[in-house]
Amino acid sequence: MTVAGPPVPPVARPSDPPSASPNGQRPAPYGAPPAPPRTTTTGPRTALITAVALAVLGGAGAGYAAGALADDDSGTDPVPPAAAAPQREGLGAVAARVLPSVVSVEAGSGQGTGFVFDRRGRVLTNAHVVGESDRVELVTDGGRRIEAEVLGRDRGRDVAVLEPDDDAGLRPLTPARSGRPAVGDSVIAVGSPLGLTGTVTAGIVSAPDRQVSLSSGGRRSAIQTDASINPGNSGGPLVDARGRVIGINTAIASLARGGQGGSIGIGFAIPMAEALDSAESIIEGN
């Protein structure tokens, strides 16, 4: 099903741009009108380049979690991580465990991804996925549709928390709790790119702490990955080879000039620790 994407948040670009000069812009979410390309002068180099902008995908970020939310001892037990990290050919088993906890999020004319993150069945997604909506519809991996309330949103971190009206019995995913991802670690991105629910792509961590700057001001630390991420993946989980969530898929770099850009192997995720921090504040505020 073809759906339009939500409004696009402020443009972002890497703080440490590549030495090459790819022309591009942040692709709008699926179905949104294109934005004009923009140019900028960066760094000690005096060359004028067109910024490789971060594309907000209708989803967002990666990192390691130590939040108290996952320690809630009521509700559904979380999906246990694998005892040891499998090789790449074993990632299919990881995907099979993760998929049932991932949902599509339909908000007005927009569409993105979310995932169950606590024992009460609440769903984590991107703020730009839900936009200004107070109510959204979730679609489970099994095709069940459930109405959900938007408990709140943290626009600064691009995080939103959803409370389903009905208990779908979905198990929360387990957040990674210690250390940080390393360059070369295997990862899986799960989501609904372009409305294609249950899509799984695999890659590696390209950079564990990429600093990106937003056109609206400020900087953000994000996990960079080459796992294919496209509009509609926003809000979906980026998991490690044990099935633990390290971040929320949020943005991509794009070479597109006028239309909507797709994956070129440079995606970004909000660190899970930051996402859980925001989620806890949202829940405490209700």
From TrEMBL:
Top-level taxon in the UniProt lineage: Bacteria
Listed InterPro entries: Chloro_Bact_Ser_Proteases, Peptidase_S1_PA, Peptidase_S1C
Biased composition (Pro residues): 1-20
UniProtKB keywords: Hydrolase, Protease
Gene Ontology terms describing biological process: proteolysis
Keyword Thylakoid found: no
Residue ranges with Polar residues bias: 212-232
Molecular function GO terms recorded: serine-type endopeptidase activity
Ranges for region Disordered: 1-45, 211-236
Pfam families named among the record's database cross-references: Trypsin_2 (PF13365)
Name recorded for this polypeptide: Trypsin-like serine protease
Gene source species: Streptomyces coryli
